[in-house]
Amino acid sequence: MNQITKEMRDLARELLASGEVKGLIGWTKGSRWYLTPPVVITQPEEAEQLYFDQFAVNNLTGLLLDYRYGDDKIALFVKGCDSRGIVRLLQDHQIKRDNVLVIGVPCMGMSDKKAVTDPRQPAELPLLDKCLECRYPNPVIADRLISGALVSGEPSEPKGLTASEAAKRGVGSKQADRFAQVKAIEAMSADEKYAFWQAQHEKCFRCYACRNICPACNCRECIFESDKKGWVNKSATPTDNAFFAVTRAMHVAGRCVECGECERVCPMDIPIMALNRKVIQDINELFGESDAGTDLDGKMPLGLFKNDDPEEFM
């Protein structure tokens, strides 16, 4: 058992036994060595189910939406990218601050299980693309910290992920290129762009995995599941899929925390983050640099109006 797992289990037992929280959301070891899926526990003895390793990739913050109507206090573990989802939910008034206990864990980057060649034999695996682009390996918000996890912005020497450790692991090595795919698509001709996105939208079969895992997709009723006629077409045609993709990107505009979970869980490998990052790039150019989910008291670029805002559409 690794040190982080031990500390997670000890803290979970303490929190549940004392009644400080009614439930706790974390990760557990799956049926294969490369699977560490989410788990919800409510009893101290269930703490033994918790586990953390390089496959604890799931962003757990969206699971808090299942508790948004209750008054029970729920604890959950967050990595750096996950913690931005907590800020997002708080700013969207989807959860109450007093009803969630945020526990930060240090993240050394998550391994790409798609690179597994032998399901029986553990091997050294490359990092996920989203970890190579990561700019927040340490939590931006936390009530408790596991194994020296550092809250971003603290002036003290990092105890979690140091710059040298990040460089060795490769975390954040491509963060400067996070708009590279956007610029590549922008450089295409109109016909090339159409062909590129047409091919992507032909693959989509509208499983909604991207929407379901996204902490910014927190509408109480999704327009794409509405039974009101004339709103949207639910068929999985390229045209309707394109409408879904663009609509979802605009719904999370200025609120996407770039956790990359939408693209990671897509069974058809659609480059969803390319569209999200195009919107982020445009917002940055129009309204100034902004990182969603990093400042609880910060103003969202599309959440306020200033007299000097550009009005190029006029």
From TrEMBL:
PROSITE patterns: 4FE4S_FER_1, 4FE4S_FER_2. Residues 247-276 form the 4Fe-4S ferredoxin-type domain. InterPro entries: 4Fe4S_Fe-S-bd (IPR017896), 4Fe4S_Fe_S_CS (IPR017900), Helical_ferredxn (IPR009051). The keyword Iron-sulfur applies. One of its GO terms (molecular function) is metal ion binding. Pfam families: Fer4_8 (PF13183). Keywords: Iron, Iron-sulfur, Metal-binding. Gene3D superfamilies: Alpha-helical ferredoxin (1.10.1060.10). This is 4Fe-4S ferredoxin.
